[in-house]
């Protein structure tokens, strides 16, 4: 019991140090690196949503970017209609992604393993094609541009502009912390433990009377809603929403982040997201075939560090 408490205290201290360290970035970093760190935080939220599927429910998906893109487009369409407010924009991203996930999850969860992987990939590519060809709504390959950032209204009608240095980064950090805390509570709840049991032995859980398909369906829709929030933040951060956000390579990068950071541990995808994004930035700056190097890093982690960065820390 004492060792467990000590480990929990060290884990809490690590999380607190990480959060404080990230919060200081706007104080010393140039504007470009603040933007990169903001993208990493958004990508970390997206990776955490995928980890709920892969790490806890045992559902590998290559179509998860579809919900990321749907959230971005829903936020963009609402913002371009002069709707100013952070919570409505985040909410519409989450709700739109969850609504789209309902029929996709209902059909995809009839299968498992590689068949589930391929079905999610197929549905994701269908939505990408829809975004490309539905020009009247999405403006095709040009996408929706000129998406404004909302204005936060504080006490005494004090307005906070999210265009100021570091303001949007702090917002994304707060959303990431809240998302991490909520998903951590979900993972440690009876619902999360049931998902782990289904992942390990679905037949046994079904024999014990658990409706395994319903549990996985709930996890699928929840993960989609979180991905939609990340997509809404991406649209606000970049000022545009394009079909590229729905493409399967975005899901692939998130999958790499989960594996590199360590699945079944929500802090793992956060660390993996930062590593993958900064590796992508650094490699693409100096190498034309940077995807080969990133792929080699992914293979190395799968073969030699199956627990990811979190696994290395736990061993130490």
What does this structure look like?
The chain has 316 residues and is mainly alpha-helical. Helix 4 runs antiparallel to helix 5 and helix 12 packs parallel to helix 15 (308-315). The chain has 15 helices and 4 strands.
Task: Name some characteristics of this structure.
316 residues, mainly alpha, two-stranded antiparallel ribbon, two-stranded antiparallel sheet, 15 helices
Strand residue percentage = under 5%
Annotation, overall tally of beta strands: 4
What is the tally of helical segments?
A: 15
Indicate the low-confidence ranges by residue numbers.
Answer: none
Order of adjacent strands in the largest pleated sheet:
1-4
Order of helices and strands: HHHHHHHEEEHHHHEHHHH
N-to-C span: 20 Å
Shape: globular
Mean pLDDT: 89
Approximate helicity band = over 70%
Rg: 19 Å
Largest sheet: 2 strands, antiparallel
Q: Which class of secondary structure composition applies to the elements?
A: mainly alpha
Provide a brief overview of the structure.
The chain is mainly alpha-helical and 316 residues long.
What order do the helices and strands come in, and which of them pair?
Layout: H1 2-23, H2 25-28, H3 31-56, H4 65-79, H5 86-108, H6 113-133, H7 135-138, E1 144-145, E2 151-153, E3 159-161, H8 167-188, H9 190-200, H10 202-207, H11 212-238, E4 240-241, H12 248-261, H13 267-286, H14 290-304, H15 308-315
Antiparallel strand pairs: 1-4, 2-3
Helix pairs in contact: 3-8, 3-11, 3-12, 3-13, 4-5, 4-6, 4-11, 5-11, 8-9, 9-11, 12-13, 12-15, 13-14
């Amino acid at each position: 019991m004492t060792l467990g408490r000590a480990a929990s205290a060290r884990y809490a201290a690590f999380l607190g140090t990480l959060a404080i360290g990230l919060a200081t970035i706007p104080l010393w970093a140039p504007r470009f690196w603040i933007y990169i760190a903001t993208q990493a935080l958004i990508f970390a939220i997206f990776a955490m949503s995928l980890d709920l599927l892969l790490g806890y429910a045992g559902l590998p998906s290559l179509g998860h970017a579809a919900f990321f893109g749907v959230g971005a487009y829903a936020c963009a369409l609402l913002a371009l209609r002069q709707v100013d407010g952070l919570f409505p924009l985040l909410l519409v991203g989450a709700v739109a992604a969850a609504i789209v996930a309902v029929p996709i999850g209902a059909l995809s969860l009839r299968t498992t393993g590689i068949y589930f992987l391929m079905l999610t990939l197929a549905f994701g590519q269908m939505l990408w094609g829809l975004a490309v060809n539905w020009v009247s709504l999405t403006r095709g390959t040009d996408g929706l541009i000129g998406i404004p950032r909302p204005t936060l209204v504080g006490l005494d009608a004090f307005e906070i502009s999210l265009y100021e240095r570091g303001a949007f980064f702090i917002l994304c950090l707060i959303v990431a912390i809240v998302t991490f805390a909520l998903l951590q509570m979900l993972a440690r709840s009876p619902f999360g433990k049931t998902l782990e049991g289904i992942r390990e032995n679905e037949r046994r859980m079904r024999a014990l009377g658990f409706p395994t398909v319903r549990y996985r369906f709930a996890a699928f829709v929840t993960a989609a809603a979180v991905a939609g929030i990340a997509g809404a933040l991406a649209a606000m951060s970049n000022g545009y929403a394009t079909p590229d956000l729905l493409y399967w390579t975005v899901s692939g990068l998130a999958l790499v982040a989960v594996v590199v950071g360590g699945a079944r541990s929500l802090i793992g995808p956060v660390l993996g997201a930062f590593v993958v994004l900064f590796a992508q930035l650094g490699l693409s700056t100096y190498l034309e075939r940077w995807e080969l190097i990133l792929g080699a890093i992914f293979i190395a982690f799968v073969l030699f560090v199956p627990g990811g960065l979190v696994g290395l820390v736990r061993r130490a």
